[in-house]
Amino acid sequence: MSTFKTIDDLDVAGKRVLVRADLNVPMADGRVTDTTRIDRIVRTVIEIADKGGKAILLAHFGRPKGAVVADMSLKSVVEPLAEALGRPVAFAADCVGPDAAEAVGNMVPGEVLVLENTRFHAGEEADDDGFARQLAANGDVFVNDAFSAAHRAHASTVGLARHLPAFAGRAMQAELDALESGLGAPKRPVVAVVGGAKVSTKIALLENLVARVDTLVIGGGMANTFLAANGIDVGKSLCEHDLAETAHKIVLAAVDAGCDILLPSDVVVAREFVANAEHGTVPINRIPPDGMILDLGAQSVRSINACIDGAATLVWNGPLGAFEIEPFDAATVAAARHAARCTRAGHLVSVAGGGDTVAALNHAGVAEGFSYVSTAGGAFLEWMEGKALPGVEVLRKTA
Ligand code: 3PG
Ligand code: MG
């Protein structure tokens, strides 16, 4: 962490601290359905408040594209946030202008305020400098605690750092530390498990991983594309046949880099994509022409578990099968539980993140059993692709 400025480098007492949080939480009928992202920022907000700072939270919600959209108001997160903090939280109906200035002006040290959705202004996503100045007018310092929005070069993630001294919050710091131990300077051997539906959305990620890890396990729908590229008949399975050439290139790059690729040896097939569809396990060279691969077989899982046993570090993104419908969650659940056991036994550092991954690990009941589970979707993927994240870059000590 020494390369990033953190709250340790900052005296917040009496200061107006603009905290960029990710409050883009799952919501149904105006109620927050998963508070993980809220819970993660508690530490930073409490620390700032207890040190006598004024914690002013900036965040986006949804994609209102520069317009005020009533059901994308951050008002809905105020109560769950107050509950998580165990203290009152004020709200201002705009993140800039007179409403924001008045609410900030009324604060005393130790108080917490949430400003309305930054994306209600077009200047946010455009990183308009005039808008960044307006945001900066309400703060003395900028603390970014939103790793999961750090892949966006927006006014509240990057622009503010042009006008205020910028620091990583505790959640950002924990995320950067975990990611560093996952792929930055990991203990070897490193195994990456990548699943999910499509190769097309993860080409850059696979290319980066083969150059950096010792073993790459490919599961999920994307494994079908690799199997088909090897001449395996995958029947009616989800498969991007047009990406055969890409799959070959990734395999060749892996050979060059000395990275082993592990593909499934057996799979669970069904004739329809519904829960509890009639199914069976077959070796990959026996997939029926009308069969659909919905999960990995037990032998494939044993091979994956053996890879995990031999690894010191595991990086995981994406489910191994159609985990959202039973019983095709079996491989994902079994391998995730195995990884959690190895982590608990102390011989594995396990880092997971990205979209469906958190849902899959929660489903397996093992999110707590991993060393670190990122709440980031796109930002985690871009990090796995080896890209510099603009919202992280501005927090570097040299920046
Ligand atoms: C997320 O939920 O992935 C982050 O909050 C970023 O949101 P975005 O994808 O709308 O930029
Ligand atoms: Mg996203």
Within the largest sheet, what's the order of strands? 5-6-4-1-7-8
Low-confidence parts? none
Major pleated sheet: 6 strands, parallel
SS elements, strand count? 17
Global structural class: alpha/beta
Q: What shape does the CA trace take?
A: elongated
The fraction of residues assigned to DSSP E strands is 15-25%
Mean pLDDT: 96
Please estimate the helix content. 25-40%
Structure annotation, total helices = 14
List each distinct ligand once: 3-phosphoglyceric acid, magnesium ion
Terminal Cα separation, in Å?
A: 14 Å
Radius of gyration: 23 Å
Description:
This protein is 36% helix and 17% strand. The chain is built from 14 helices and 17 strands. Strands 5-6-4-1-7-8 form a 6-stranded parallel beta sheet. Strand 12 and strand 13 form a beta hairpin. Helix 7 (203-212) runs parallel beside helix 9 and helix 10 runs parallel beside helix 11 (330-344). The protein is elongated and about 70 Å long. The site of 3-phosphoglyceric acid (3PG) has 8 residues, from loops.
